[in-house]
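Record passed on underneath.
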Amino acid sequence: MTRYAAAGAGKRPGVLILHGARGVELRRRAYERYADALASAGTDAYLVRYYSPADDRALATITTREQRVAYQTERFDRWFERVSSAATAILAQPESSGRVGLLGFSLGGYVAAGTAARDNRFAALAVLYGGMPDNAASRVRRLPPLLELHGDADQNVPLARGEALVKLARAVGAPADQVIYPGRAHGFDFSDDDPMAADATDRVVRFFRTRLQAARE
């Protein structure tokens, strides 16, 4: 993990940030934009590398979408465990307020949703252009409050996957909101020039402030 600490003393919540299918480095600048914004708002952010070295090697050899989806499906449970282990380490820190959230992008959104469904320590879940893994959806009995952001021109993860996640969250009694960005494609918020990228960052920060900080203020 890479930690982006909020300034000041005292206990504070944390948010685990989960990268997309291409790992951390390719989109690090965008992930750090969210991490820095969360830290500036008083929440510690942690960029989590849930891929193992073996995952990196295996994914580097995959050449088709079908192979990639099959590999990810087989690995989801292990990735859920890795993220929960990261949360355990964060919650054990003396500065932790005891409240943690998950922020996932694309594949990381699927990992975040599946982890939050299994681990009730997570108090908030934000997913950008993601969904719930198919092999986990039927087992979901709870989810924390959810914010899902999605472009309606997304060709990688169709908007319907985000809509299905929101519907599932509401079905198990979780507050769930979705913001749809007209004409925006997959990863629209990675752009430094698109004003909707700033909008998405602001919405995510406000969501976690409300769900993780407001309860203790």
